[in-house]
Sequence to fold (150 residues):
Amino acid sequence: MKLINTTNYTTKELRDFVRFAKPSGVKNVDIAVRNTPNSYAWGRSYGNYVAVFVQKNPRYFPWYAEVHPRQKKKGYLGWKLLLTREEAMIGILAHELRHEWQRNHKGHRTFGCRKKGTSERDADAYAIKMIRKWRKSQTQPLINISSLFF
Ligand SMILES: [Zn+2]
Fold:
């Protein structure tokens, strides 16, 4: 697995994102991650190669990622609210790497997504799961307020 990184994340940070977002059993995929100047985030899976583009400017976030009716027809679920640039990174990586997974796991997808070819619905369902898992992992433990007063 080759990783091409032209973002301002370190390669170590990117490897951690990939490790987090990757469905198990996906191997031999090269991944290129780049900044994008004028959109939020997007990606593409080509079969053994995934390209991911994420907005560099943190002021673009939170991002309300609405689904266009045309995309809904194609099966996209949409992700609603993405709080940070890192959540967008995890979401796009998870979605595109799930397409790589789909190519080798026909018939094992989320219920209702068992047509041949790749499925946007299944890829989005997986991405949403991983974004939630990421968000949970980033939550700081709450301070016990009473300990500040007594
Ligand atoms: Zn897709």
Summary: Residues 3-139 form one domain.
